[in-house]
Amino acid sequence: MAATETEAEPTKVLEFGLGDGTYCLDIGVIDEIVDAGELTRIPNSPAHVEGVMDLRGRTTTIVDPKTLFDIGEEGPRERIVVFDDDEIDEGGTVGWMVDEVFQVRDVAPEDVDQGTTVDDEGLRGIVKSDGRFVVWVSPDVEDFDVGDVTPEDAEP
C-alpha cells in the first residue's frame, strides 16, 4: 500500500528514564550516548549545570534535565545523552545526565498528543503507545542556559 501525501513520516526518538518517568528526544539532535563518568564542578554555574567532562578532547557541559523539568525523583544517573553541536545552539557541547536509556523507536504523528503540553516549555507532546505514556521533550528549553563555561572555570 503506497503512502498518501497526507501521511507524515514517523520520527525516530530515543526513550530514556528520569526518575519514575519515561521521556524521549528526537534522535536527530543526539550525537552520542556515553556512560556517566567523573564530572568537574563549575563554581557559580546555573543550578541545572552538573559540571563538565572531557569527551574525546571536547569540554562537554553536563546538564541535569530533572532540574530543567522540575522532576523530583532520584535515579541511578548512569548515562549521558550528548547533543549534536550543529543541532543545539548552546555555544558548545552539551549533554544531559539521564538515569537510563531504553530504546530507539519510531513515533507516528498520530500517536502524539500535543494538546496537554501546549503551554509547557520544552515539551513537544505525550506519546501514547502500548498502554503507556512517554513525555516527548525538546532540548530547546528556554532557561537551558549553560552560561559561559570554559575549561579554565573547572575546579581541580
Topology:
Elements: E1 11-18, E2 21-26, E3 30-35, E4 49-55, E5 58-63, H1 65-68, E6 79-83, E7 93-98, E8 100-107, E9 112-113, E10 123-129, E11 132-137
Parallel strand pairs: 2-11, 5-7
Antiparallel strand pairs: 1-2, 1-8, 3-6, 4-5, 6-7, 9-10, 10-11
Domain CheW-like: 10-148
Protein name: Chemotaxis protein CheW
Pfam families: CheW
Verbal overview:
With 156 residues, the protein is mostly beta strands. Strand 4 and strand 5 form a beta hairpin. The termini are far apart. The N terminus and C terminus are likely disordered. It has one domain: OB fold (Dihydrolipoamide Acetyltransferase, E2P) (Beta Barrel). The chain contains one helix and eleven strands; from the N terminus they run E-E-E-E-E-H-E-E-E-E-E-E. The strands form two sheets. The chain has a six-stranded mixed β-sheet, with no helix packed on it. The chain has a five-stranded mixed β-sheet with strand order 3-6-7-5-4, with no helix packed on it.
Summarize the structure.
By secondary structure, this protein is an all-beta fold. Helix content is 3%, strand content 43%.
Write down the overall mean pLDDT: 84
Query: How many domains, as an integer?
Result: 1
CATH architecture level-2 label: Beta Barrel
Computed over alpha carbons, the radius of gyration is: 16 Å
Summarize the main sheet: 6 strands, mixed
The helix-and-strand class reads mainly beta
Percent helix range: under 10%
- What fraction of residues sit in β-strands? 35-45%
Order of helices and strands: EEEEEHEEEEEE
Ends distance:
61 Å
What is the overall number of helices? Answer: 1
